[in-house]
Amino acid sequence: MPVPWAYFDTSVLLKRYIREAGSAQARATLRRHRFLSSAIAPVEAISALCRRRASGELAEQDLTVILSRMRQDRSYWELVAVTPLVLTHAEELIRTTGVKTLDALHLVSALAFQTMSGIRIPFITADIRQRDAASQLDLTVMWIGSTQPHAN
Questions:
Q1: Beta bridge partners of 92
Q2: Is the pTM of this model over 0.85?
Q3: d(Cα 146, Cα 36) in Å, to the nearest integer?
Q4: Closest among 28, 21, 20, 19 to 8, alpha carbons compared
Q5: 61 beta partners
Q6: pLDDT, tens only, 46-60
Q7: 3 state DSSP class of 142
Q8: Which of 56, 79, 107, 122 is deepest in the core (most CB within 10 A)?
Q9: Cα(3)–Cα(40) distance, rounded to whole angstroms?
Q10: Residue 146: its pLDDT value, please?
């Protein structure tokens, strides 16, 4: 039986590398699904990790180890390209819902994959605002983590 696809927001991807609320659940979910995300996910993840290093939450040596693990893992990731069509739909989504830029790109990327593949997949997030927006778009949402908002 093939491993099913799932769309992972960056908030969940980070839990693969950093121990925080929901990390164990995120890792288990990542093991059960093929990883799909937006092409922005690696850049967004590195940005979040570097902010943690700058704030003192993450040591330089830990960042180096995490970045090395991410490079190894990327060969298993399927990333949805940020095409002109994705950007146009993200702009429309921002205008109609008020979601933030990166959230819109993730949501539209998940919808684009579903449209192109004809497969309905779970949208997995640890970000409350994104969870709510995904629900409004009729995506199948899987929630990971605590009840506190997660800022990317």
A1: none
A2: yes
A3: 22
A4: 28
A5: none
A6: 999 999 999 999 999
A7: strand
A8: 107
A9: 23
A10: 62
Contact between 23 and 141 under an 8 Å Cβ cutoff? The reply is: no
Q: What is the dihedral of CA 35, 40, 41, 47, to 10 degrees?
A: 170
Q: Does the pLDDT value for residue 73 go beyond 90? A: yes
Residue written as token pair 């704030």: 55
What CA–CA distance (Å, rounded) separates 16 from 69? 10
Q: What is the pLDDT of residues 92-139, one digit of tens each?
A: 999 999 999 999 999 999 999 999 999 999 999 999 999 999 999 999
Alpha helices in the chain (DSSP H): 10-15, 23-32, 41-55, 60-73, 84-97, 101-117, 128-136
Rounded to an integer, what distance in angstroms lies between the CA atom of residue 24 and that of residue 84?
36
Q: Give the CA distances from residue 51 to residues 28, 97, 141, 145, in Å, rounded to whole numbers and listed in that order.
A: 26, 28, 27, 20
Which residues share a beta bridge with 38? 80
80 phi/psi in degrees, rounded to 5 = -80, 125
Amino acid at 100: K
